[in-house]
């Protein structure tokens, strides 16, 4: 039996956007003032929805590069990435791609609704192309909460009330910074 996880391409977007720059940890700290024309990082809530209720939530400090990955599903089959072989973003706010995992092709799609600058939902689905497997679906709601908290870096994430932050770039945990510093 295969297990299938449908997740946002956030981590992939972070790795590509930050590794190319070889940013040092100090450079990923949330700036106090953004340069003109540069989007300031913001704290975003990501909720997995079941109907109109959230069943899980994580907050993440995201810049524009990381946010661009919110609407691109990056599925995994049995813990292995489903590697995109064809397709991608479309101009109409949809995403459609073919990916391959364990010698099987999957059709992956997403439709984004709402305001991508502040509050939007992404309905994601993945279907095995031989139609022998189940269809996987997930809806995520993304809401901009405001500036990243003091001490949070781009890519830091945590569930509400957590005592630790997860650095999604290095996959390392560290204690939650004290409020106000």
Structure characterization notes:
The chain has 181 residues and is mostly beta strands. It has one domain (4-25, 41-175). The chain is built from 2 helices and 13 strands, in the order βαββαββββββββββ. It has a 10-stranded antiparallel beta sheet. It has a 3-stranded antiparallel beta sheet with strand order 1-4-5, with no helix packed on it. Residues 7-32 have low confidence and may be disordered.
Described by the principal axes of the CA atoms, the overall outline is globular
Query: Could you state the order of secondary-structure elements as H and E?
Result: EHEEHEEEEEEEEEE
Give the CA-CA distance, first to last residue. 47 Å
Number of strands: 13
Percentage beta strand? over 45%
Low-confidence stretches: 7-32
Class based on secondary structure composition and strand pairing: mainly beta
Oligomer: single chain
Largest sheet: 10 strands, antiparallel
How much helix is in the residues? under 10%
Q: Name the average pLDDT.
A: 80
Rg, nearest Å: 17 Å
Order of strands across the main sheet: 6-7-8-9-10-2-3-11-12-13
Q: What is the count of DSSP helices, taking H or I runs of 4+ residues?
A: 2
What is the number of independent domains? 1
Q: What descriptors fit this protein?
A:
single chain, 181 residues, mainly beta, 2 helices, 13 strands, globular
What does this entry show, briefly?
The chain has helices at residues 10-19, 64-68, and strands spanning 4-5, 42-50, 53-62, 76-77, 80-81, 83-89, 94-101, 104-115, 119-128, 135-147, 156-158, 164-167, 172-175.
């Amino acid at each position: 039996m295969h297990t299938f996880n449908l997740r946002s391409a956030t981590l992939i977007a972070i790795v590509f956007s930050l590794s190319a720059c070889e940013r040092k940890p100090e450079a990923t700290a949330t700036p106090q003032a953004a340069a003109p024309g540069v989007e300031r990082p913001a704290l975003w809530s990501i909720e997995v929805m079941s109907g109109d209720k959230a069943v899980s939530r994580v907050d993440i400090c995201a810049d524009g590069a990381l946010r661009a990955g919110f609407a691109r599903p990056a599925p995994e089959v049995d813990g292995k990435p489903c590697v995109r072989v064809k397709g991608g973003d479309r101009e109409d706010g949809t995403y459609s791609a073919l990916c391959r995992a364990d010698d099987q092709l999957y059709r992956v799609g997403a439709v984004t609704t709402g305001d991508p600058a502040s509050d939007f939902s992404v309905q994601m689905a993945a279907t095995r192309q031989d139609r022998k497997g189940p269809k996987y679906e997930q809806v995520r709601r993304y809401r901009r909460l405001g500036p990243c908290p003091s001490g949070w870096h781009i890519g830091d994430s945590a569930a509400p009330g957590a005592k630790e932050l997860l650095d999604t770039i290095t996959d390392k945990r560290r204690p939650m910074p004290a409020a106000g510093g």
